[in-house]
């Protein structure tokens, strides 16, 4: 007996559709490859910030930058020996990841306890081992999250070298120890030798950057870095100024550094420009650097194009800087793409409009986002267990840490975090989330907790005792309170009059740690 007759019509139609799809894809692929190959190479853009907040990171993202260069200041991370403050840097790394930025961490700014000259703006450590322990802690904490580290900043200036005569051999010693620590702690991370300040001076105050780089190679620096940082400031000269203009202090000077590398057999290593810019305003002593806002925009765009088209050894182009809320005459503020009041200078749009990615890389990114499955985490850390926050108005011995941000009274804390569409998909948009935190010694009844300025349930932190022990607390979060993008947990300290206080109204003193939210 014959079985049922098979109908191959749909199968044939599907094969024809598949064939058409494959042919169209191949044709489009050939067109894209031809079109992309005729375009300039991609030159990743970076922005150097001073102390970024969410608004600044949004602007860096809006520019289309891929890199964020940020100082990981040793003096704020380890203000006293063995006391580590990670709160801000933890947030920065999480926030940069949300905005699609890769962090380049600059490791300098010694704390007063680690240096001999405590009046200097920046000093090398008295003990190299203190610095390498700082480096180890940073790299270990952010292993796999930070792709590159800059070891120090402009060591050819006495200002950055403890008011001492710049010494290349001493810097190389610091570089070698730091590089060994970075490579052993995170083999995937790249070591960047410090950007040198362009100068023709050779004195106790400064060392010519070209001379200093030769001396670095002579001292054995070659095997201790993967990338050379550069600060090819043009001092009001056009990016197209000839090599000899302004006594060689112009953008073309970067070729001198490249020549030193080639002469030392180091031509395979790239240069990353980690600082470059033109100021629109400056203090009186630096007024010869000022170009004004229209020229800032024109020169930055031209310098980027020139780097992309003529300097193939440069792999990253970083603009100094974006900063707000500083006086217009401030030396750092003058270079910013943003005015002190937050409004944008013309250079912001000029940089934004630059071609920063090839068509191929854009398509690859989109395809990756389409075909890579998203598995949002169930828990989101806001304040780590070892990043303790002390609110109140009194200093106490251990286990208490100093008052938050060293302000007295410290009455408020805000923990910032980010959520994506995937984080809030499905049932997560409707079911309750949970806020967890650990507390030590809350006494007043009026200390409140909020998310996005909405009070949670219960409305107050639970009252604890005087045992100095950590206890856990949790709060319900309506899903409607959470939003895609920026979110914030706020804790506002109470100021009541408990029976144990004898005179006047004082702030409660308590500590928090291990703050996180849990998805339903």
Structure description:
This protein is α/β, with parallel strands linked by helices. The chain has 2 domains: 45-371, TIM Barrel, CATH 3.20.20.80; 379-518, Jelly Rolls. 29% of the residues lie in helices and 20% in strands. It has helices at 9-37, 54-63, 74-77, 87-98, 128-141, 168-185, 209-218, 254-263, 293-310, 331-335, 346-352, 359-371, and strands at 45-49, 67-73, 102-108, 148-151, 190-193, 227-230, 271-273, 314-322, 379-383, 389-391, 412-419, 433-440, 448-451, 454-460, 471-477, 485-492, 510-518. The strands form 3 sheets. An 8-stranded parallel beta barrel has the order 1-2-3-4-5-6-7-8, surrounded by 5 helices. Helix 6 (168-185) packs across helix 7 (209-218). The longest helix has 29 residues, at 9-37. The model is unreliable at 1-6, 32-38 and 356-361 (pLDDT under 50).
SSE string, helices as H and strands as E: HEHEHHEHEHEHEHEHEHHHEEEEEEEEE
Count of beta strands: 17
The number of helical segments is 12
Radius of gyration: 27 Å
| Quaternary state of the chains | single chain
* Backbone structural class: alpha/beta
Overall 3D shape: globular
Quote the distance from N terminus to C terminus. 58 Å
Biggest β-sheet: count, sense, barrel? 8 strands, parallel, barrel
CATH topology of the largest domain: TIM Barrel
Helix residue percentage: 25-40%
pLDDT averaged over residues: 89
Unreliable residue stretches: 1-6, 32-38, 356-361
- Our estimate of the beta-strand percent is 15-25%
CATH superfamily of the largest domain: Glycosidases
> Widest sheet: strand order?
1-2-3-4-5-6-7-8
CATH architectural arrangement of the largest domain: Alpha-Beta Barrel
Query: What is the name of the CATH class of the largest domain?
Result: Alpha Beta
